[in-house]
Amino acid sequence: MKKITVEVAVNAPIEKVWDKLNNPKDIEQWNQASPDWHCLNASNSLEVGGKLKSTMAAKDGSFSFDFEGIYDEVIPHKLIKYHMEAGRTVEISFKEENNQVVVTETFDAENQNPEEMQKEGWQAILNSFKNHVETT
Fold first, then answer.
1. How far apart are alpha carbons 103 and 68 in whole angstroms?
2. What is the topology classification, in CATH, of domain 3-135?
3. Activator of Hsp90 ATPase homologue 1/2-like C-terminal domain spans which residues (predicted)?
4. DSSP per-residue codes, the chain
5. Quick check: pTM over 0.85?
6. Residue of 125, 107, 120, 98 lying closest to 29 (CA atoms)
């Protein structure tokens, strides 16, 4: 399965970056790829075997979908691994560099959309996350 990687450097301490990535109330604020979408709700049980779930929707009500993952590995402030339905995996690493935290996400591509489109969507969500952390 083809892997895609996206990355962002966040100007914030590792504790804040970790918390904002995993707190459901924060996830609801940053988890969208464009301004015409939003995250209706999120829940997160950040432990091996725990579940991450969010509902993303077009603001005009035309489309929505659930995103779900089950955690395989959690190392606080370092690494998160989870899998989605159909066995696709996601790995998120955190690295402190030059008073920033570099957040890198590597995920298995799906077969329905072009890889570049998937990369752009995941990068847009990660950019939204960076903006949320740095402005709250």
1. 20
2. Alpha-D-Glucose-1,6-Bisphosphate; Chain A, domain 4 (3.30.530)
3. 11-134
4. --EEEEEEEESS-HHHHHHHHH-HHHHHHH--SSTTEEEEEEEE--STT-EEEEEEEETTSS-EEEEEEEEEEEETTTEEEEE-GGG-EEEEEEEEETTEEEEEEEEEPPSSS-HHHHHHHHHHHHHHHHHHHHH-
5. yes
6. 125
Residue 114 — pLDDT band, cuts 50, 70, 90?
Answer: very high
Average pLDDT (43-62) is 97
Structural domain boundaries in the chain: 3-135
How high is the mean pLDDT of the chain?
97
